[in-house]
Design brief:
ProC C-terminal domain-like fold, 51% helix, 274 residues, Rossmann fold, elongated, 8-stranded mixed sheet, single chain, alpha/beta, 2 domains, 8 strands
């Protein structure tokens, strides 16, 4: 699906909004077909606009009502959502597919606020979208057309990997598993780095990052399973085995990880009901 034909409205230009804007520009979408609605544009956004000349606006009323918006992306904070859906916004976007990456706002809420827009996608992603390596999922209302589904998946594909889920409940699971996922890796990196420095490695953080990145590239290149690669490092009676036996004692690492992720999923579920 060629989304370059559509006028695209991005509401909010924080990290996520900027990631999608950059992806669109990198893929040669005509800047004149991009509208960025942001009340408080950053210097970075202003600098990009100075070169690329897309439509940077601070009010929905600055878009001509005759403009046909094909794709609308909500990339704002949850407490900003209600104020966005005024009469002008709904008139401009009534024939648009409405994509929300706002945490905790269900398709039922969006349908009500949008005056019964029939093409709504609720998506969730994570921060690596800012470097084009995000992981995303999308859930569509039953009335969303096939054409609009493809548009949404095509847009999300610009910033990484995307999968469609058939039930909205999976959005909460995704949030706990993958939306928060980068933070889990960064926490491990912090712990590992502190340990490396404690043992006298001044460049411990660089060494940890290289170890993590190299291991992931090895996984991708060999296409072996994590279990198989782990076994390849683990000699019987060796140093790696000594550490893994401690990690795996009474399944304590697995249990801790499961409990922590379930807390994130539970919190996502609570936010969706608020």
């Amino acid at each position: 699906m060629n989304i370059k034909k559509d006028n695209i409205l991005i509401v909010g230009a924080g990290n996520m909004g900027l990631a999608f804007l950059s992806a669109l520009l990198d893929n040669k979408v005509n800047p004149k077909k991009i509208f960025i609605l942001e009340n408080n544009p950053s210097q970075k956004l202003k600098k990009i606009n100075k070169t690329m000349k897309f439509n940077l606006i601070n009010s929905i009323y600055k878009i001509d009502i005759k403009t046909k918006i094909g794709i609308t992306l909500l990339a704002i904070k949850p407490n900003q959502v209600v104020d966005i859906f005024n009469e002008q916004f709904n008139d401009l976007t009534k024939k648009s597919v409405l994509i929300s990456i706002v945490a905790g706002k269900t398709t039922a809420t969006l349908k009500k606020l949008s005056n019964n827009n029939k093409n709504i996608a609720r998506a969730m992603t994570n921060t690596p979208v800012t470097v084009g390596w995000g992981t995303s999922v999308a859930y569509f209302t039953k009335t969303t057309t096939k054409t609009n589904k493809i548009k949404v998946l095509s847009l999300l594909d610009l910033v990484g990997q995307v999968d469609e889920v058939k039930s909205e409940k999976y959005i909460n699971s995704f949030t706990g598993l993958f939306g928060s996922g980068p933070a889990y890796l960064f926490l491990l990196l912090e712990i590992w780095t502190n340990l490396a420095k404690k043992h006298g490695f001044k460049h411990g953080e660089d060494m940890v990052v290289q170890t993590m990145l190299g291991s992931l590239l090895l996984l991708l290149k060999t296409q072996e399973t994590p279990k198989s690669l782990r076994a390849g490092v683990t000699s019987k009676g060796g140093t790696t085995e000594a550490a893994l036996l401690e990690f795996n004692k009474d399944n304590k690492l697995q249990k801790l990880f499961q409990v922590a992720v379930m807390q994130a999923i539970k919190k996502a579920s609570i936010l969706s009901k608020s």
